[in-house]
Amino acid sequence: MNIEVTPIGFVQSCFKEKFATPRQPGLADAAKGVIELIPPFNLPESVEGLEDCSHIWLQFVFHECMNQGWKPKVRPPRLGGNKKMGVFATRATHRPNALGLSVVKLDGIECTDDQVRLHISGLDLIDGTPILDIKPYIPYSDAIENAQ
User: Fold this and answer.
1) CATH class name, domain 9-63+98-138
2) E strands in 6-129
3) Phi and psi angles of residue 47, each rounded to the nearest 5 degrees, phi first
4) Residue ranges per domain, the chain?
């Protein structure tokens, strides 16, 4: 079965290459960027109500890893690269569908007649990353106490 997805926008990031980019969102709170929505998703009404959110979830594509394939076991940097784990137990970039998920701080929304730009911080995405979806971070359901 083929499933087709379309980017709704792209990230303009202070990080230009993956080797200088934080490995998790929130590790560099001062890292700022912009998500620019593209037609037909760049309508101000598409983000109506989002201004009430302090943080948002971004679903994106690891676009620079797509042609490198996936591996069932990887060496996560958080373990010093010394231990292999199953790819689904990690946040590795080399995944079967090259999809990523990050939560970032929403600093502001800029809307004009033909442009919607979300100003964000705490990002871990490189410049040009395709954004597939945006969802509000909802503390009562997204923050799980005692999670491991």
Assistant:
1) mainly beta
2) 9-13, 32-37, 55-61, 73-74, 85-86, 99-112, 115-121
3) -115, 10
4) 9-63+98-138
Both tokens of 76, joined, read: 């996560």
User: pLDDT confidence of 22, banded at 50, 70, 90?
Assistant: very low
In sequence order, what are the residues at sequence separation of 6 or more whose Cβ sits closer than 8 angstroms to the Cβ of residue 124?
15, 21, 22, 23, 24, 25, 26, 27, 28, 31, 102
Tokens representing residue 63 in the block: 């676009």
Nearest CA to 23 out of 142, 118, 123 is that of: 123
Q: Which amino acid, one-letter code, is at 69?
A: G
Distance CA(5)–CA(27), nearest Å, equals 29
Which one, of 44, 38, 35, lies nearest residue 13 by Cα? 35
pLDDT digits (tens, 9 = 90+) for 38-63: 999 999 999 999 999 999 999 999 87
Handedness of CA 68, 69, 73, 79 (dihedral sign): positive
Enter the pTM of the model. 0.85
